[in-house]
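tool=predict chain=A
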Amino acid sequence: MITGSQTDEAEVVETASAKINLALHVTGQRADGYHLLDSIVTFATDAFDRLSFLPADRDSFTLGGRFGPLLSPEATGQDGNLVLKARDLLRAALAGEGVSMPPVAIRLEKNLPVASGIGGGSADAAATLRGLLRFWGASLPEDALFALALRLGADVPMCLSSRPLRARGIGEDIVALPAMPALSMVLANPMKGVSTPEIFRRLQEKNNSPIGATPTGSDTTEWIALLASARNDLEPSARASLPEIAEISQMLSESGALLIRMSGSGATCFGLYVDHAAAEAAATRLSRKRPDWYFQATRTA
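tool=predict ok
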């Protein structure tokens, strides 16, 4: 049973951490078109969107943050996003349990780039589910919440826990990786989006080998060695679609990163560094070179 407990504070706040695909192998394709994946996933501790929930006379949704304007109805041509879908699906699920939930004012502070391969929309949806369960003091059986999350998107179930994991299938077959160490990294995005469906359409090979066995301990050297032996099968087609991915990867390499890779379907790339001080220094230097791009030093969970 997944339960939220009301707090003494009127406002409930949830963070939606960036989801980082440290490795992503495409291992097949189902008859319905969905691609099968094998991915090692972790989450940033200080690169996140922020959602707040407050009592209200009627439902409302507002946007803020650096990238908030990119999600406005005027910018997207749509009347909603995954936050609103998550709210409505959760309310309907609770109504099916015989519980009616009051209106809520939701504010999304959008700090992560949009359509950037770090699960921003999925993380926002998962944070909405977690936040509303707390705000409403409600509960759902774990399997029911998982199924609801999967209806919102293949990445939403893994974003519910926001902990290191290995995801297979279309992303719904999840195994926790509690031994994965915290990693210091820089997230880098050239502020240009890529189309995930187009990246998958460009794939030349869709039946690749899975990722090898993960280390049983938390030795950072062993984990980086595993990641170095893996890859992101979407990266070649993304690079062909957006040349800036190669440029930003080169910048990360020149800044001293130990390992550079694209996350998800792009265009965000990451570089791993020896420690957080090195990552912060690199992010500062990179931001000075390209102040119009997105660079964020962070640690992983």
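The mean pLDDT is 93. The radius of gyration is 19 Å.
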